[in-house]
From TrEMBL:
InterPro entries: G6P_Isomerase, Phosphoglucose_isomerase_CS, SIS_dom_sf, SIS_PGI_1, SIS_PGI_2
GO molecular function, one term: carbohydrate derivative binding
Organism per entry: Gemmatirosa kalamazoonensis
Keyword line: Cytoplasm, Gluconeogenesis, Glycolysis, Isomerase
One GO BP annotation of this record: gluconeogenesis
Gene: pgi
Family assignment from sequence similarity: Belongs to the GPI family.
Any Gene Ontology CC annotation: cytosol
Enzyme class, broadest EC rank: isomerase
EC numbers, comma separated: 5.3.1.9
Function: Catalyzes the reversible isomerization of glucose-6-phosphate to fructose-6-phosphate.
Subcellular location as annotated: Cytoplasm
Catalysis performed (reactions): alpha-D-glucose 6-phosphate = beta-D-fructose 6-phosphate
Name by which UniProt lists this protein: Glucose-6-phosphate isomerase
Length: 458
């Protein structure tokens, strides 16, 4: 079991230099100390999750009690309360899990994540479900997010109508133990509720019951997820960059951005199961690092999700010849051997003949290496994270690597990586538009905005 980062191609003319790297080792030590000081103060609960046996037990107990009762598990959540479960499902239960028969799923339920309030999507899911055999997992750290609460109200009314007093058997909440509206509802009504520790923010919560409960319900080994994360935590314990993968990732991305104008950071796995993992990373990196510094300057790299080889035929042209403002991080999975060699047919057709005898895994790998090399040749910095396999252990390790890297990057950018004040104004305006009590100030601000000008519409 191993995870490594090859960052040779970050050191290119116009990108990171040896001098940067030497200077930055001291800068990283300060960032590491700042992060560890916050860990010691108990601010950064995500760091403790790999060892939190009591929290894991909340999930395993619930899953044991559930037995094989559920045919469908439906998550209601958004942002950090949805992207993690989606990433885990795609990574560890790939190949269209929800289309498999119950036998093919080993008796485990389907898993659907409603991460939006598009009425047609919710209508379609509701009309497919057999409510008697459906469990709804309502996930919200704050316990009050408008989209999730609206979903809950719709589901709750349907459950009440169908099951009356027994509706609550079809519900479990995952929320803060003390804050928000969900917890008091759970307590009052006797609905099962699992904890998101108060010191773990939404986008850092995938290793709490937010991600672990849905994963365990569909048979993913939650203990292995946490074991992989714990291993990465151990590797990142020291402030020596040479042994610290999260520090190395953070420092290189920050140097490339801050010193060399590489303001866009692409994550490009060469493995279909990691497609949604890139979307999870986008929220983590964007919401954590896109901030206003105390001195009023705006900072933050723009994360971009891509998939190899698919995006070689879509975005790579931009990465090669567009503005030289990007880093690309490939994720490679070693030893993809399924299917065996490509059949040797059409010996007389050059476009086909050379492929015969190689495996698809070899082709995928050759294309990644070729793309990395081509980008390096054009002075476009890139690095490659190699996983031995896409399994719970390696996914847990990769999650922890990127979460801790985000914390380090926050210190390097000199911002707070753990808040998201920029999303507030839009929420306040939504409350004002919908007439939520207490939103008068937002209403007044909203009313001052220019109204749509009919001359400016085509
Ligand atoms: O889990 P919740 O409290 O419902 O939050 C869901 C999402 O809402 C907000 O918009 C935050 O910006 C996200 O970071 C968060 O993940």
């Amino acid at each position: 079991m191993a995870l490594s980062i090859d960052y040779t191609n970050m050191f290119l003319p116009g990108a990171v230099t040896d001098a940067d790297w030497e200077f930055a080792a001291g800068r990283f030590r300060a960032a590491h100390a700042a992060v560890m000081a916050r860990v010691a103060r108990g601010d950064l609960g995500f760091v403790d999750l790999p060892e939190d046996a009591a929290l894991l037990r909340q999930t395993t107990d619930f899953v044991q009690r559930a037995g094989d009762r559920w045919e469908d598990v439906v998550i209601l959540g958004i942002g950090g309360s949805a992207l993690g479960p989606i990433a885990l499902r795609t990574a560890l239960r790939p190949h269209a899990w929800n289309t498999l028969s119950r036998e093919e799923r080993g008796g485990k339920p389907r898993l659907t994540v409603l991460d939006n309030v598009d009425p047609e999507t919710i209508d379609a899911v509701m009309s497919r479900l057999h409510l008697e055999r459906a469990l709804f997992v309502v996930i919200s750290k704050s316990g009050g997010t408008a989209e999730t609460m609206a979903q809950y109200l719709i589901i709750r009314a349907a459950l009440d109508e169908r099951f009356g007093d027994r509706a609550k058997e079809h519900l479990v909440f995952v929320t803060d133990p003390a804050k928000g509206s969900l917890r008091p509802i759970a307590t009052k009504e006797g609905i099962a509720a699992l904890d998101i520790p108060p010191n773990v923010g939404g986008r850092f919560s995938v290793l709490t019951p937010v991600g672990v409960l849905p994963a365990a319900l569909i048979g993913i080994d939650a203990g292995q997820l946490l074991a992989g994360a714990a291993d990465m935590r151990r590797r990142c314990a020291g402030d020596d960059l040479a042994g610290n993968p999260a520090g190395t990732f953070a420092l290189l991305q920050w140097l490339a951005d801050d010193r060399h104008g590489k303001h866009n950071h692409v994550l490009m796995p060469y493995a279909d199961p990691l497609r949604d993992f890139a979307a999870w990373f986008v929220q983590l990196w964007a919401e954590s690092l896109g901030k206003v510094r105390k001195d009023g300057t705006h900072v933050g790299p723009t994360p971009i999700a891509a998939l190899g080889t698919t995006d070689q035929h879509a975005q790579v042209q931009l990465f090669m010849e567009g503005p030289a403002d990007k880093t690309i991080t490939f994720v490679e999975v070693a030893g993809r051997t399924a299917l065996g060699p490509i059949p040797k047919l059409y010996a007389d057709v050059p476009d086909l003949a050379y492929l015969g005898g190689h495996s698809l895994g070899e082709l995928l790998d050759a294309e990644r290496r070729a793309t990395a090399g081509a980008l390096a040749r054009r002075g476009r910095p890139n690095m490659t994270i190699t996983l031995d396999a896409v399994d719970a252990w390696h996914v847990g390790a990769l999650i922890f690597l990127l979460e801790l890297a985000t914390a380090y990057a926050g210190a390097l950018y000199d911002i707070d990586a753990f808040d998201q004040p920029g999303v507030e104004l839009g929420k306040q305006f939504t409350y004002a538009i919908l007439g939520r009590p207490g939103s008068d100030a937002a209403r007044a601000e909203w009313d001052q905005l220019p109204k749509p000008d009919p001359r400016r519409r085509v």
